[in-house]
Amino acid sequence: MTTGIENFPNNESTYQLDKEKQAPTPSKPLSLPSRQTVFKFLRLGTGIGVLAILGSYLWRSQTSVVSHQAYINAPILSLHSPMQGQLTLNNLIPGETLTAGTQIGQVQNLRTPEIEVNRQQLQSQLRLDQSQLLLLQQKIANRRQLLADFSQKLVLQQNYQATYHTQQIRLQEAQLRDAQHAAKLADVQAERYGSLVKAGVVSRDRADQAITAAQRANEVVRNRQADLNQARAEQAASTNGLQLSGSKTFSLPDIRARELRTEIADLEEQVQVLRTQIEQDNLKIAHISQQLTLRQNAPITVPTDSVVWSVERRGGALGQHVDSGDPLIKLLDCKQVWVDAFMAEEDVRSLQIGSAVNVRLLTDGQQDQIEGRIQSIRSGVGRVVTGQDVALPPPELVKRAVAVRIMLASDDLKPERFCSVGRSVEVVVSR
Predict the structure, then answer these.
(1) What whole-number distance in Å separates Cα of residue 279 and Cα of residue 287?
(2) 111 pairs with which residues across the strands?
(3) Packing angle of the helix pair 252-294, 112-199 (nearest 10 deg)
(4) How many separate helices (H) and strands (E) can be counted in the chain?
(5) Which residues contact 271 (CB under 8 A, 6 or more apart)?
(6) How large is the C-alpha radius of gyration of the chain?
(7) Cβ 356 vs Cβ 373: under 8 Å
(8) Across the beta sheet with 69-73, what order do the strands follow?
(9) DSSP 8-state secondary structure symbol assigned to residue 246
(10) What is the dihedral of CA 263, 269, 275, 277, to 10 degrees?
(11) SS3 (DSSP) at 86
(12) CA 77 to CA 302: how far, in whole Å?
């Protein structure tokens, strides 16, 4: 006999069965991608990136010209001390903006008595040099007068010599004619005596004497002809200032004329040296007079709107001694700012004077763009010489490179940052 308890289902077992039915069946774990698949996708992405970079580079090189090196530059203005004295300068800081006409200091002249003494010494030396110059000029005038006198005597002597040689030639010509006439008569006489000897009228001795006389007469003709030729040669040599026999001897007028010419040349050289010295003395006196005119104070003002680039001298509270022309301060002129860019020679045909270009600032993590225009294109041999008044002198150009100067609008640059002078940039020119 079964009881009711046995027929009634067990609550605990029933709950356990329901719980097992309701519990979800465990799913299979997800399969992760293999390591080979990951590396495959990484290689694919890297290849696509490299191809994209190469494509961008090729597209850019085909459509534009990019500079190898470029930087911003500007002119430098140097202020110098106007005179010798004690410098008092404001406490200027590099990068400080200054406007035109601003007084930034002064030079106080504390050596007026000493400068006056220097001027008096220079004036005394100037008067001495002027006196020496006057004496030299008088001496030159005297020597020129003597040279004129001796030159006149030399001309007279040359005329006398020419007359003498002419007379000698005429005398030799007359003697030659006489000798020729005598020789002709002697020849006729000898010929006649020869005929008489054949006829037996005169003796052979008498005929031989006539023949000998004719030979002597002809010898005299030859000697007279030689004397005439010698006289003509001496005349030609004398006309050209030469002498045929012996060493050349000069007459007193000729010797004195030569000595006077040499002396005048030496005196004129001394005059030129004195004139140069007098000119230098006048310049020094004018400079000292200008310093005395400035007297105590000479203001130092800024010539144009600019930025302090560097301070060469510090005046301080007590001031600092400076000489005339000493550099005091260097200013950066932000009104004229340009880019010195260096590009390959094969890209020159893509560059045109006046063409617009894009300039990108690369430093400080920025890539701001500024518009500019090409002002000049220089080859390696025509580059700007190092030492010009610019903030950054140009470097030595490498082979097959040209320097391009690009003017920028100064409104885009900040003066407190030195107008970005010295910053590296990249210049892009469309082909």
Answers:
(1) 12
(2) none
(3) 160
(4) 6, 15
(5) 133, 136, 137, 140
(6) 56
(7) yes
(8) 64-66, 425-430, 356-361, 369-378, 401-408, 338-344, 69-73
(9) S
(10) -120
(11) strand
(12) 10
Q: Which residue has the tokens 């005119």?
A: 293
Amino acid at 370: I
**Claim: this prediction has a pTM higher than 0.70:** no
CA gap 98, 104 in Å, rounded: 9
Q: What is the pLDDT of residues 292-323, one digit of tens each?
A: 765 667 888 999 888 998 888 876 666 788 88
CA dihedral of residues 359, 404, 79, 283 (deg, nearest 10): -170
Q: What's the burial of 71, exposed, middle or buried (CB within 10 Å: 0-12/13-18/19+)?
A: buried
Amino acid at site 367:
Q
Distances (CA, A) of 100 to 300, 303, 305, 333: 12, 5, 5, 11
Q: Which distant-in-sequence residues (6+ apart) come within 8 Å of 278 by Cβ?
A: 126, 129, 130, 133
**Among 298, 349, 332, 279, residue whose Cα is nearest residue 133:** 279
How many other β-carbons are positioned within 10 Å of the β-carbon of residue 424? 13
pLDDT tens-place string over residues 61-115: 555 788 888 888 888 889 998 877 888 888 888 888 898 999 988 888 766 667 7
Q: E strands within 211-337?
A: 297-301, 306-311, 320-322, 327-332
Q: Can you tell me which residue has the tokens 């605990």? A: 12
Residue for token pair 């007590």 = 318
Query: Domains, the chain, ranges and CATH?
Result: 65-77+334-430 (2.40.30.170), 81-110+294-331 (2.40.50.100), 115-272 (1.10.287)
Residue 339's nearest CA partner among 74, 63, 30, 65 is 74
Nearest to 423 by CA among 357, 307, 350, 341: 341
- Return the residue matching tokens 């590296």: 424
Q: What is the spatial distance between Cα 327 and Cα 81, in angstroms, rounded to a whole number?
A: 6
Angle at Cα 53 formed by Cα 51 and Cα 54, nearest 5°?
A: 65
Report the 10 Å Cβ neighbour count for 83: 23
Q: Give buried/exposed letters for 394-419 (b at 16+ CB in 10 A, else e).
A: beebeeebbbbbbebebebbebeebb
Task: State the pLDDT confidence band at 154, using cuts at 50, 70 and 90.
Answer: confident
